[in-house]
Amino acid sequence: MRAKTIDRIATGVIVAVAVLIMAVLASLIGYLLFRGLPHISWHFLTSFPQAIKAGGGIGPQLFNSIFLLVLTMIITIPLGLGAGIYMSEYAKRGPITNFIRLVVEVLSSFPSIVVGLFGLLVIVNTFNLGYSLLSGALALTVFNLPMMVRLTEQSLRSVPQEQKEAGLALGMSRWKTITSVMLPVALPSIVTGTVLAAGRVFGEAAALLFTAGMSSPRLDFTDWNPLHPTSPLNPMRPAETLAVHIWKINSEGLAPDAGEIAAGASAVLVITILLFNLGARWFGRVLYRKLTASK
Amino acid sequence: MSHNAFYTKNLSVYYGEKQAVRKVSMEFPNREVVALIGPSGCGKSTFLRSLNRMNDLIPAARIEGEVWIGGDNICDPNTDVVRLRQRIGMVWQRANPFHKSIYENVAFGARYHGTRNRKELAALVEQCLRKTALWDEVKDRLHQSALALSGGQQQRLCIARSLAVRPSILLMDEPASALDPVSTAKIEELIAELKKDYSIVIVTHNMQQAARISDKTAFFFLGDLIEYDDTQKMFTNPTRKSTDDYISGRFG
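Above: the input entities. Below: the structure tokens describing the complete assembly.
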């Protein structure tokens, strides 16, 4: 009888906490969408921002955010997968490996503004990459890599030992066993981790202020040669992302509709992250099915 | 020794300080089934796993002594374990098919070892699935996930998978202990059939099973090989008293 009462109270508390969290989340997203959605139009999504006049858009910023995400992931995914595979399958257990793991954990909890300053000093100044998409992508890699490494390592470790033994016992090399037997099994959790890491890139502002910069050149969306300075695809140009743009117009925007633009941009940011999440999960599922022949 | 498939000489296995197998010397005749019996923790699985260097995966494990297979001492650190394991198939207690289609489970290893021709590969897959009496059960769903098969079917698929890389020796670690009686019977029939082409070493906790399927039986106790003889003799007239006690169920 007592045990039953306690169980009921515990269940009640847990449900209440869950409802509370859901309510906070729902009201947050609801408020963002309620304020931002009316302002979103095709024009808003594709046109250039205006400094003083009303009616500016967020076209270049939206493009920059997506392009920066792609650049960052191109650098992060191979490095993260490689390091994660090393940590879980090749590294010998011992103080050095544990130290590396500790460093990775510390790195993942770095304040992003510190990463930004590091990027400014090392990437922008010392390596002389200037305020550019590439600098931003490298700074975000510093920020993202630890998470990617840890998730890959954990996903591989959670693959049943029997799978690995089966591969090796068939006379496959360690590398073949890892890539063809273990990685497909670990894929769903690696995809989830990648999506989480990518979401952080999308929302990050502080680390980009001093690396990717706070302005974009007047982009020419008809010029797709990555070597031209005004081409959207040029990775060496400065680029203001959506999150940075929101921060900027909120703190120093001069346009009369700055508030609406910030609200609209926030809503776009949330929706894009959501779409990206769903898309990446769908892609992960398709890939997993293809590799494992499961339904 | 030429008529022997392989043999061990003074083989010891240590886990850190603990010695799990003590100086075991055994000969395994060609195309016969050898059963390893003994209570849990007696070293029989460890012994089995050292025959294809699977203990390499355990960082603290160390091997002393020799295992001779086809003229090579596989305990030599220069041994190409990848080539070695191709010659030795292995089946575990819990069926562990790859998370791939039924077809891929069998074709995967063979393709890796050089069978690239599609027709050849398909023929090989069919042959291996027929050998394990699985073909008729799965021929219509070859490209569905292997994980949807029953436990017994999965275990036979794992055997088919190891046959596809053309080994000469099969190691089985309690292959039927997680299966129901019907599936167990199928595995036992299969072993009797496979004996014609392969040398088989099987670890089992089931005394009747050892008596039914093996030609020779080895009794392990606390890391020592106590007795090794023809199964017939082991079960009717063992030389050592502890063998008799274990087989008749008085301990272990």
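Note for the figure: Residues 40-292 of chain A form a domain with the MetI-like fold fold (CATH 1.10.3720.10).
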